[in-house]
Design a protein that fits this description.
With 803 residues, this protein is an alpha/beta fold. The protein contains twelve helices and 41 strands. The strands form eight sheets. A ten-stranded mixed β-sheet has the order 19-21-23-26-29-32-34-36-38-39. The protein has an eight-stranded parallel barrel with strand order 22-24-27-30-33-31-28-25. The termini are far apart.
């Protein structure tokens, strides 16, 4: 601190010292600067100086202090009346802060605290900069070393390449160009002789050659051979003495070289009987051919060798998992035709995959709707035992799939296994998925609900004592809805499960079950993922994943369900019903009504959903293709704009150069006094300016168009991503629908407890039938029939049999 006023000096020093600061105070500016000079090793954090010092003004002191210690913070105390002095001091000394006198203690302390904080930041930044510069220099040095090494390596490579080229040239000049043709390699010989390139094959061939040499030596010891010329090509067969002639000829030549005598003219007359290996060995295989067994069929007087077994296996193309030679030799030593087959080769059995499994810790199949009263109506108030769960309860667990492993048979063929099935496991409202994705817990109190798409949720209940009409409006609730009255025409309900007294012309979209105590009339059920129960159904369209249970009649309706249509005590009149799991009916048709169309064993409901999904995906893909085409056109236009900008930029630069040269000429003309030439130059000058201006306008216009194109391209990219996201969701829906469809095999059967009228049209997956006569208490089912001739496809026929 530099202060000449003793009152302010003592006050400021005492205040700062009491607040923990170490203060060096001076009355004379020269002494203060000398102290600052000697403190470079441990510099001061802050210099606080009064402007009104007697010999050297405060701004000059701080200016000198900046040169000595540039990082040290500088604060100037200035009288409030000397505003112009304050501006001059800030500009001259580049102070960090000014303190207007008189000031309060809090103001001084706050200003000192801020300056100390700023000093620490500045010092940290300086240290960081030093470290960064040092590291950059080190990295630069490392990079330089790498470049030097790279240059050395490139130089060595070039030098070696040059040597190679020189050597190749010398070879060509010495032996001709043909010597550089591709040499015969081992693999070429193996391919020509049909020998697999493997250690097992090499070992087998070595043993064969060993036995051949042994055979030739034994032959030489027993017989006198006639030396003859050795042919180039030898045909090899799988016989015991296949190399007999080769042995004679090779040994004859050996005698010539060793004895240096003329070869004998005596012909060898020994006759050797061929031993065919197929007469001695029999092969059998396991079902998947991963194991091969060998058995002796007969024993010849001639001893069977290991090489013959290897030849026999090679002939039958058995190459994988061959037993070790000592094991085969041990078997040969004691084998008889009466022994059990010997395991000669063992491949690798395939490991079949394990599909994922889902385990639910609540009853997923309970009475949602209520109990059926004696009159056939449904008492939805008495709904049986409904599972309830508390918060944070484990609802379900998934056992993940295990991948399989391909096998290999003894012939070296890979036995492929399918990928495991990974079942859908997802949490809905009121639940949470564990971090590993294998467990689902409840997050609220309510009724657990599993829909057919594999979504698990916990549903609260919403009760309506009266009708769903204008008073309530449409209902969209994330849980179960119970309506004591009627759901009126034109209104919509979207929820988990729905129980109502009656539905009249409403639209229903639910993920669970629909339970109606009376009837469904003039209603189109858009999407029901569970089952439907009703007392009667009139003029309605029902699409459901589960069963349709109706106590009385189904009239003038279209029904597509993935479950069964159960109407044992009722009647089906003038309706179109498709039920994958069959139809159970009391009566079908009347003599006066239009015959019904019944389809069983076919999941038209799923087929329609899949067709709808495929149609939506096709629309999305067409949209993506159109956007990609438009995107490509915009890119081409953008490329043309780049070319235009380049041309206009060239015109602009050339015109500016001409303008520069013209200005120089104009100055020379003015100096020479040529007024006429100066006037002509002005006209040219104006034309060039117009060219520059037009080029600039053209470039700006092109830039604007490029910005428009960039915006449109960005929007189209967003649309493409949107379509792709929609397709991903549709693919997931498709997977879930197929998972559901594969859970049960279709049942192509209609059971009638009373009577079915003639004219009823019946369709199954492979056949169809129009009833010519009425039938009572019968069962109608599709049966396969054996083909008349072998190779013909299986035939199907619908039969009517007693119930």
């Amino acid at each position: 601190m530099i202060e000449h006023s003793m009152d302010l000096y003592n006050r400021t020093k005492a205040l700062l010292s009491d607040n923990g600061y170490i203060v060096d105070s001076f009355n004379v500016s020269i002494e203060a600067l000398e102290a600052l000079e000697t403190s470079k090793v441990s510099p001061y954090t802050l210099i606080l100086s009064n402007y009104a010092m007697p010999k050297m003004k405060g701004d000059e002191i701080l200016k000198a202090a900046k040169k000595i210690a540039p990082l040290t913070q500088r604060v100037l105390i200035v009288d409030a009346k000397a505003f112009q002095t304050l501006v001059s001091a800030v500009n001259l000394a580049v102070v960090h802060a000014c303190l207007i006198h008189p000031f309060r203690d809090e103001e001084l302390l706050n200003q000192v605290k801020q300056c100390c904080t700023q000093y620490e930041k500045t010092l940290s930044q300086k240290n960081l900069k030093i470290i960064t510069n040092r590291q950059n220099n080190q990295l630069l040095q490392i990079a330089g070393n790498f470049k030097k090494k790279e240059a050395i390596y490139f130089s060595q490579i070039e030098h070696k390449d040059r040597k190679i080229r020189i050597l190749e040239s010398r070879i060509r000049s010495a032996d001709g160009a043909d010597c550089l043709a591709k040499p015969v390699e081992l693999k070429d010989i193996l391919i020509r002789r049909n020998i697999p390139f493997s250690p097992e094959s090499f070992g087998t061939q070595f043993l064969i050659i060993k036995d051949q040499v042994k055979q030739m030596i034994e032959t030489a010891a027993k017989r006198t051979l006639k030396p003859v010329s050795y042919p180039k090509n030898v045909t090899r067969t799988f016989t015991t003495f296949e190399h007999q002639n080769v042995a004679e000829k090779i040994l004859s030549l050996a005698y010539i070289l060793l004895d240096k005598n003329e070869p004998s003219q005596v012909e060898s007359s020994i006759n050797v009987k061929e031993t065919l290996l197929d007469d001695h060995f029999e092969l059998t295989f396991s079902k998947n051919k991963t194991t091969a067994f060998i058995k002796l069929k007969a024993i010849d007087a001639h001893e069977i060798t290991l090489s013959q077994v290897k030849q026999f296996l090679e002939k039958n193309k058995i190459i994988t998992g061959l037993k070790e030679d000592p094991m085969i030799e041990a078997w040969l030593f004691k084998a008889t035709p009466e022994d059990d087959p010997f395991c000669i080769a063992q491949g690798r059995d395939p490991k079949y995959p394990k599909n994922s499994k889902l385990e639910y810790f609540f009853s997923t199949d309970f009475l949602h709707a209520g109990k059926i009263d004696p009159d056939g109506s449904i008492n939805y108030m008495d709904r049986g035992d409904i599972p309830q769960v508390a918060e944070n309860v484990l609802l379900a667990e998934k056992i993940p799939p295990e991948a399989g492993l391909n096998g290999v048979d003894v012939f070296g063929n890979e036995l492929f296994v399918e990928n495991p099935e990974d079942l859908t496991f997802s949490s809905g409202p009121g639940t949470r998925l564990s971090e590993d994705g294998l467990k689902i817990y409840s997050t609220k109190v309510g009724q657990p609900h599993l829909d057919v798409m594999g979504n698990l949720s916990v549903c609260p209940e919403l009760h309506f004592k009266k009708n769903i009409d204008f008073e309530t409006g449409n209902i969209d609730f994330d849980g179960n809805v119970i309506v004591n009255g009627c759901v009126k025409q034109g209104f919509k309900i979207k929820c988990a499960s729905l129980s109502a007294r009656e539905i009249q012309g409403a639209q229903i979209d639910i993920t669970g079950d629909l339970n109606v105590s009376l009837g469904i009339v003039d209603t189109e059920l858009i999407y029901v993922k569970g089952s439907v129960q009703a007392y009667y159904v009139h003029n309605s369209k029902i699409n459901a994943f589960g069963d349709l249970i109706v106590q009385k009649e189904i009239v003038d309706s279209k029904i597509y369900i993935s479950g069964a249509c159960i109407n044992k005590n009722g009647a089906i009149i003038n309706s179109e019903i498709s039920a994958k799991m069959g139809i159970q009916a009391g009566r079908i048709g009347t003599q006066s009504a239009t015959p019904s169309k019944l389809t069983v064993g076919v999941d038209e409901h799923v087929n329609r959903l899949m067709a709808d999904v495929n149609s939506k995906m096709t629309i999305h893909n067409n949209g993506i293709n159109e956007l990609v085409s438009e995107f490509s056109d915009l890119e081409k236009e953008n490329q043309r704009l780049h070319t235009d900008i380049s041309k206009q930029s060239y015109i602009q630069e050339r015109s500016q150069l001409e303008l520069k040269n013209l200005k120089k000429k104009q100055a020379d003309m003015k100096a020479s006094g040529n007024i006429t030439a100066c006037q002509k130059t002005l006209e040219i000058f104006q034309k060039i300016l117009n060219t520059i201006t037009n080029a600039k306008k053209s470039i700006d216009k092109t830039f604007d168009r490029q910005d428009e194109i960039a915006l449109v391209i960005s929007q189209k990219k967003d649309k493409i991503i949107h379509f792709q996201d929609l397709n991903k969701k549709l693919l997931d829906d498709k997977k879930r629908i197929l998972e559901f469809s594969d859970r049960k095999n279709p049942l192509p059967e209609i059971s009638i407890t009373r009577k079915i009228e003639s004219g009823t049209r019946i369709f199954t997956a492979n056949s169809s039938l129009i009833l010519k006569n009425s039938s009572s208490r019968c069962r109608i089912k599709e049966f396969p029939e054996s083909p008349e001739a072998a190779g013909e496809s299986l035939l199907y026929k619908i039969r009517v049999s007693p119930y």
